[in-house]
Fold:
Amino acid sequence: MTAPAALFGDAPSRDPRFEVKELWREMANLPHDHPDVGQEFLLRQLNEELNAMEIAARNLVDFPDADWDLRMALARQCSDEARHAIAFRRLFESRGGTLGQYPVLNFQFRIMTSIPSLIGRLAVSNRSFEASGIDAIHDGMQTSKRKDDADFVALFDQQLADEVQHVRFANVWIKKMIDRDGPKAVMALARAVAQADAAFKEIVGDNIVFYPVADDIRREAGFTEDEIKTAHSFVDGK
Structure:
């Protein structure tokens, strides 16, 4: 891989059952009408939930002096993401899937471990990646309802409730950090977002998929009206 090393940190460990890739174009990337697209999605999502769990756990290890309430929120996130991974694995295997059937990416964790500040990690992982995730989950729920896929709907419903909380606590704590640390926190946040954007482009290239912005759910997650408008202008302009 030719991406600058500074954009990426350590990769998470995976056992031999997982086929790990580094670039989006190396993934299966099945067409929407392919009969296995649902199974490929489940395995990819299973691994993304593991990434989210590992990121939250790494934040606990890397920032032991963070406020206790924030550490408790991160610990609860670890538990939530582990439960999500188990649920995705259960559904994947119940439909005949086996681990290693499709390749996976660990770019989320590798991007996070290169960001040195906790405010930066919260901004990128919780406030950006997971915020986009709640848009995707909401869209997936609507699609699953149209297909009468009750298992997917139930899984998405459980996941969405937790992910909203993960975005919300990040919004709350980012504001507290900025109020407490002022320009220093703002600069750390801005550097992290710029670095993550560059790293994401190295991984995905032009293959970025945007989902419709879920206004009401983003409000519930603590985004302001101006922030929701900004999300719309970004997504709708792509």
